[in-house]
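From the shared-data thread, chain only:
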Amino acid sequence: MPALQILQRGREDYSDSYRAMRAYTDGRVADTPDQLWLVEHAPVFTLGLAADRAHVLDAGDIPVVQTDRGGEVTYHGPGQAVAYLLIDLRRKRASAGADARLYAREFVHRIEAAVIDTLAAYGIAGIRHPGAPGIYLADGPAQGAKIAALGLKIRANGCTYHGVALNVAMDLQPFTRINPCGYQGLATIDMRNAGADAELVDVQARLARELARQLTPAGA
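Structure, as tokens:
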């Protein structure tokens, strides 16, 4: 099985990343390596396939991009660690010995576990909320605030793209201009405001390691 390749793409326009993810997935063959892309975006609101545009309250000068991922509306901007997962789940399922539907859920669970472990390395406790993908603060004054969003596209052939966005040190004001993930009044937070003074590049590296650890089958 080809090793998971980790690519640091730096600051990149969201539309460029989106086109590149689709192109990479379109061109996949049986032995195409799985890749993990680390990206930072200029300000942009993105909509999932089922998103209600009414959840964009005041886009202002921030572009709004329709995508083919799951989920609702979210915001990407400077100071956010975005990890895109271009993975062939059929390959992973064969190693894990699970069926497609179960493995899709397990894939999300492992991504969330990687975020939780990344936050724990900086002294932040993160938790899942059933039925609401992403990671939230487990305790403290901002308990329940969302610190990481997750949205994926899983094609019929088992290949995935899009991924997870962890708020590190951001301008959080744009989140007040949407109903994040479709939830009115949902508080959002970043690691800086949760008490962790961390550099984006360091968090990206830690998140990449944790994702690679979670997504590499035992013995691979």
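The longest helix spans residues 100-121.
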